[in-house]
Amino acid sequence: MLDADKCWQALCDRNATQDGRFVFAVRSTGIYCRPSCPARRPRRENVSFHLDADAAAAAGFRPCKRCSPQGQSPAEQLDSLVVAACELLNTSEQPPTLAQLAARIGLSASHLARAFKVRTGLTPKAWSEAQRRARLEQQLPAANSVLDAALNAGYSGTRALYQQPAPLSPAQRRKQAAGEQLRYSIAPCPLGHLLLASSAKGICALLFGDDPAALLSELQQRFAAAELHVDNAGLGDSLRQALAQISEPQRAAQLPLDIRGTAFQQQVWRALQQIPLGQTRNYAELAAQLGSHPRAVARACASNPLGLLVPCHRVIASNGSLSGYRWGLARKAALLKQEAEPSREQ
């Protein structure tokens, strides 16, 4: 049974997460809509709520032409078009220009560019390049040469590989990154176990887990090309700072960070670091701040390798629930509860 008060609040908020869970009908117009419909909000006494489009139609209402409650919403239609654009970019021998891609998809170039960036955090050109880079990374370890890997990944040569600075050159990555060494240490903590890893530039990973062996396996997967060395003594002070921050969040660890990610991921992670202690933000708020889409922000949060130090646990769902967390909702709840203590005392 539908909760009319919650449905009305979702309607007032134009909450797209409730689309597909119910529709609302307006007696004065005879039309039914999805919760996210952008039309002017009706008077409460004129509104009824129905489980789905069929139920509303059976009650004598007709579908809204603006939000299409009986089929895909405009946002869902754009989702499908962006997916189709991604498939075209992935399968085209020569990446199409924005104008060519838009013509194939059936949108204007500007509309496609906006929709694509909102949903992926990247322009079509940058997304295509990121995919080509990913193919290169897969090819490098087994390739006879960097040139072979580049050609198989879709490059015309190796020049483009060296034009953008990177921690490791393509040749180093082909040799399993023999030039990079990471130090790590694992210690028990109030949330299970904590793994801290550092490069020459700073802390590059802080991971939570229940089992030290599983934590080490995760580190190896994240930095498959690096040499890993235990350094309990060398990382002792950094580890103590991180452990202290869990128990006493006001004692924030002051550690140099080696933050690795795409430009968009790093943009999101910088925004996370600006969320004050004891406060939270929801995905929609961060997306609005960054000019992106909540799903893109959520993916960037889930990719964060620096738990606690880059506080992705301070991001919650729009309805106030904890939503997802890479290291489990129990840890997220514990961190937020501990961080809320100072604010209650002030």
Describe the 3D structure.
The protein has 346 residues and is of the alpha/beta class. The protein has five domains: 60 residues, DNA Methylphosphotriester Repair Domain (3-Layer(aba) Sandwich), CATH 3.40.10; 48 residues; 44 residues, no CATH class; 67 residues, Methylated DNA-protein cysteine methyltransferase domain (Double Stranded RNA Binding Domain), CATH 3.30.160.70; 83 residues, Arc Repressor Mutant, subunit A, CATH 1.10.10. It is 44% helix and 13% strand. The strands form three sheets. A four-stranded mixed β-sheet has the order 3-1-2-4. Helix 3 packs across helix 4, helix 3 packs across helix 5 and helix 3 crosses helix 6. The radius of gyration is 24 Å and the shape is flat. The two termini are 43 Å apart. The model has no long low-confidence stretch (mean pLDDT 86).
